[in-house]
Amino acid sequence: MSGSTDRPGSGAEVQHGGSPGRSRGSSRGGDRVMVPEADFTSYYGRPIVKAAPWERDIAYYLFTGGVAAGSSLLAGGADLTDRPGLRRAGRIGSLIALLLSVVALVHDLGKPSRFLNMLRVVKLTSPMSVGTWILTLHAPFAGLASAAELVGMLPTPWQRGPVRLLLRLGRPAGLVGAVTAPPVAAYTAVLLSDTATPAWHSAHEELPFVFCGSAAAASGGWAMATAPVAEAGPARAFAVGGAAVELLMAHRMESSMGLSAELMHTGKAGTLMRASKVLTAAGAAGALLGGRSRLLSVVSGTALMAGSLCTRLGVYEAGMASARDPKYTVVPQRERVERGEQVRYQG
Amino acid sequence: MIGRNSLFGPLDPAPDAGYTDAPKRKGFFTDTSVCIGCKACEVACKEWNDVPENLFEMLGTSYDNSHSLNANQWRHVAFIEKPASKPAVDLGMPSVGAPVSEVHEDDKPDFQWLMSSDVCKHCTHAACLDVCPTGSLFRSEFGTVVVQDDICNGCGYCVAACPYGVIDRRRGPEGDPKVGIAQKCTLCYDRLTDGQRPACAAACPTESIQYGDVEELRERANARVELLHERGVMDARLYGNDPEDGVGGTGAMFLLLDEPEVYGLPPDPVVTTKDLPRMFTRAGMAGTALLVGAALSFVRRRP
């Protein structure tokens, strides 16, 4: 049960004393502020919107989901182009990442025993429902392909009867897994953006590209680190392309998301986003220059995975911080009102 | 049922949700100009709905120790102390014949209180309901938004989706059967089905909390704000009464005497699912790019 150590109510966020009224915007973190400190009013500095009651395992799931999706794609491509080593790395990566994803997702529910209630409706207005069905479609096929890969490692005399059948199912299942993988990587961006959390909602134009790029970089990094160097050419290309998209779109995202973009540069999220950029750029450079070296492949592959993880954690933390401080809710809305541009229905 | 305005725009929510013979939409009009901060609504709500204790702390924030709407607090009375700016205006408070004050105007305290009983807005376009992945949150025949305790699996998505920060996952007290489950005001669904007023409205001694048909409450609210303007209370304004606003208007609307954010309300709330088609489009483009990128990575590379 998450949050069980918290006190009832929103105790962690309660601020003591003070009076309501005009206040200088909070200066938490505050080493590099892009927008002048905003003057705004709040009710004793208390948050308006509530932060998602999730723990960091949701941020880890954003990462593992991306690795699972990218690995399925690489495994599918490797299978079709006859690269058994790369295929094995992809399928095993997919299996590990999917198992970790399910653990993180179930653990974060308030009533984990009711996990299957997710499957009682198909609801297009709920990205979590859509995501659950995407995973329900993807995971069994990806899992079957991974199982085929594992039994393929058994000694030959054991590969008989049902085991042979499983082996033959590996390719079709893996291809279905690959085709259903991109939605697994992309939907998590919608999952975050479809909230009232200022930093997540305001990132909705670019976040899917950041997350898909991050998925390619991380899964490419995994395959670089684990597959034979001679077969890992496509993984390196995939990783470098993903890293480029991730870095470019993260930059665009920060310039389009308004006030809450400052959270990408300050505090915990700022540190994570800076680390993500350095690690992703270094990993991509390593993949381009030293891809034929075993050691450099492992080092740059690990850097790419770490960079992707930092991106996910950074975006997650920026959202949490934007919900905890009423400034990020009030100021953009108040500015719309002052400009006479309230959101109104247009015929 | 999917209509043209199902995600955004003016709408009667119950028919849009598929009810064919729905009663008129029900809601609250909370007139904060006559709220005396007695918290009878908080107590009545807890008693009727069996809502357990909230965190109690001496917060030092005026008379407010219940601090927010959350899973254990479905009505919340805000107290705002501010310097008095102008002489008091007769707001037409109900009178029980208290003696006329003999204190000279200049000797009266130099501050004033704003008090407001906040509650779930029962939005026309309710983000919590839209994003709920289990169908636990549903639209009632009265146009209200209600959680089904036995279905919610505590995913917490509604908590992050609400633009007002109303709904929350119950965190305690330990042993409460609803710990881990999303909870909020039901507009006393179980009283409405028996033709009763919600408990808070029944308990309110000044009729600051009025219950009724949303259509009629909107008219009542308009008349009240006009009256206050005539009497010189130019700060009086309505909140949530516009069916063309960012959430399609709310079932629970308010008359406020200052900017919404002074009361802890967002000044221009928007239902997040308004942008959902765009979000899915962008995700579709990104996913397609990922698939193409993966395919290109294998082009002209022979092992």
Summed up:
The complex is a heterodimer of chains A (347) and B (303). With 347 residues, chain A is mainly α.
Note down, in words, how this protein is organized.
Chain A has 347 residues and is an all-alpha fold. Chain A has one domain: Formate dehydrogenase/DMSO reductase fold (Up-down Bundle), CATH 1.20.1630. Chain A has eleven helices and two strands. Chain A has a two-stranded antiparallel sheet. The longest helix of chain A has 31 residues, at 294-324. Residues 1-17 and 24-33 of chain A have low confidence and may be disordered. Chain B is of the alpha+beta class and 303 residues long. Chain B has two domains: 13-270, Alpha-Beta Plaits (2-Layer Sandwich); 273-303. Chain B is 24% helix and 16% strand. In chain B, the strands form four sheets. A four-stranded mixed β-sheet of chain B has the order 8-1-10-9. In chain B, strands 2-3 form a two-stranded antiparallel ribbon. In chain B, a hairpin with a 5-residue loop joins strand 4 and strand 5 (145-147).
